[in-house]
Amino acid sequence: MYNAKAYSVSSPASPFVSASIARRDPTEHDVQIEILFCGICHSDLHQARNEWSGMMPTVYPCVPGHEIVGRVRKVGSAVTKFKPGDLAAVGCMVDSDRTCPECKADLEQFCPNFTLTYNFPDKHLGGVTYGGYSESIVVDERFVMRAPSNLNLAGVAPLLCAGITTYSPMRHWGVTKGKKVGVVGLGGLGHMAVKFAHAFGAHTVVFTTSPGKKEDALRLGADEVAISRNADEMNKHAGSFDFILDAVAAEHDINAYINLLARDGNLTMVGAPATPLPVAVFGLIMRRRSFSGSAIGGIAETQEMLDFCARHNIAADVEVIPIQKVNEAYERLVKSDVKYRFSIDMASLKSE
Ligand code: NAP
Ligand code: ZN
User: Fold this and answer.
1) pTM value?
2) For residues 37 and 134, what is the distance between their CA atoms, to the nearest angstrom?
3) Which of 46, 169, 246, 341 is an S-S bond match for 158, by CB 3.0 to 4.6 Å?
4) Max intra-chain CA distance, the chain
């Protein structure tokens, strides 16, 4: 066991402060990674503030962070995929049972016994797992991905959650050339969804509450932008979408988007507001529309997504911040004031 520098919160209302956490020494299948960048996901904020208390109560102190990119420093004796000096990446999961039908189908994100990267029981050290707002992490090589070396690493980190969470449902629901795709909410997830939908060749429409993001949406690859608070701009698209991805972190009217789906169209929620969203079933019944959800993606698919990004030169648009600005970043995240992901430069932790 060794101590690592980190930033943690000790209650839903307290700010992040500098902390020291325990990490295990690498066992034979483990990789020890020096973290270079860690993205700030809205899920980090939901959990740091215990907003998901019903589903996943937060255990304090909490060290969030599941968009991790770094360099391998040590490997266990049985590790075959990595050597010291390699670039490596870790997302939302650090383990699963590897034997259930979900794991066998490369869908570890649905394993009933998975271990999330933070705020989950730590079977090695007891207590809970600690995430990427830290100088290093130790993870079984099966849950470590190879990171692209041709992209800006600060922009690679967010691919590990915002990237895979949007890539996976679009693959599942067959987003391709000729399809009309909507993206609701131009935040960290939403802006990655636009990049992928565009790369897959779909006609992409962004729905935003922020008129100031219109130009950016077009630059990111959208074909059209609709201001969701404007009824005319919404009605124009009634009954026309094959697929809509909703990445909104707060309560909003989901039926307004169900009504935009064509026959057999699907609306997938990846945004995870803490409170239930009422669904008007007639909107679904009349055109055999479906409403579903999706969680991150499996390890193999995450690697596939990273390789796709390397080939297509896709990374997140990031604002790089030192860890000392994490509290300010959270306040801006609540106000939808980030273009389009904060990425923490972990070198800033050295001065703590
Ligand atoms: P984010 O960067 O804060 O983006 C959310 C966007 O939603 C905002 O930029 C804003 O876009 C829009 N929005 C915010 N408040 C709104 C409101 N009251 N009404 C309508 N639109 C609103 O968050 P994120 O990191 O992308 O995460 C989004 C959600 O996905 C979070 O709930 C997060 O926990 C969840 N998530 C789920 C998974 C999964 O596996 N399913 C994985 C990661 C994250 P505009 O300014 O364009 O309107
Ligand atoms: Zn996330």
Assistant:
1) 0.98
2) 10
3) 341
4) 62
Please state the φ and ψ torsions of residue 172, each to the nearest 5 degrees. Answer: -60, -40
CA distance 255 to 128: 38
Report domain extents, the chain.
Answer: 2-161+297-351, 165-293
Question: Is the domain covering 2-161+297-351 a CATH 2.160.10.10 domain?
Answer: no
Whether 310 is in the pocket of ligand 1, judged by its Cβ within 6 Å, is: no
CATH superfamily of 165-293: NAD(P)-binding Rossmann-like Domain (3.40.50.720)
Give 52-79 pLDDT, tens digit per residue: 999 899 999 999 999 999 999 999 999 9
Ligand 1 lined by 277 (C-beta under 6 Å):
no
Contact 170, 196 (CB under 8 A): yes
Give exposure, 91-115, as e/b (b: 16+ Cβ within 10 Å): bbbbbbeeebebbeeebbbebeebb
Nearest CA, atom 31, ligand 1: 249
List pLDDT tens digits, range 221-233: 999 999 999 999 9
Name the DSSP class of 48.
H
Does the beta carbon of 214 lie inside 6 Å of ligand 1?
no
User: Is residue 164 over pLDDT 90?
Assistant: yes
Q: Do 62 and 11 form a contact (C-beta atoms < 8 A)?
A: no
Check if 41 has its Cβ closer than 6 Å to any atom of ligand 1. yes
65-114 pLDDT tens trace: 999 999 999 999 999 999 999 999 999 999 999 999 999 999 999 999 99
Closest C-alpha to ligand 1, atom 29: 271
Cα 140 to its chain centre, rounded Å, is 20
Least distant ligand from the CA of 161: 2
Nearest-angstrom CA–CA distance, 57 and 54 = 6
pLDDT at 234: 97
Q: In this structure, are strands 290-293 and 318-322 parallel, antiparallel, or unpaired?
A: unpaired
Q: How far is the CA of 286 from the centre of ligand 2 (A)?
A: 34
Do 2-161+297-351 and 165-293 share a fold?
no
